Amino acid sequence: MYRVGFPGWKVAWRLGVPLRVRVCAHFDNESKTYWASSPDLDGLVVSGATLDELRSETLSAAQTLLELEVDGSNKRAVTTDLRVMDAIACSA
Prior knowledge:
Shape: elongated
Structural class: alpha/beta
Number of helices: 3
Order of helices and strands: EHEEEHEH
Distance between the termini: 23 Å
Largest sheet: 5 strands, mixed
Strand content: 25-35%
Low-confidence stretches: 88-92
Number of strands: 5
């Protein structure tokens, strides 16, 4: 897998190379919901009531954002590397 954000990732996407998108998930104690963002993919910020919902929202958003980044070419399934971390670990 080739990571989004590395040099040439758009070329790799167009050639059909599987891509990896890092996603940091957090739990908000106040609202009792999960939220996630990605240091690799600008604009990826989603939330969900459960981890399953968060995962689904993350995959959908990543798919849309990747298609927009490469002008809608080579539509295919996206896989994310979803890691649940605390805010300090993800901000580094």
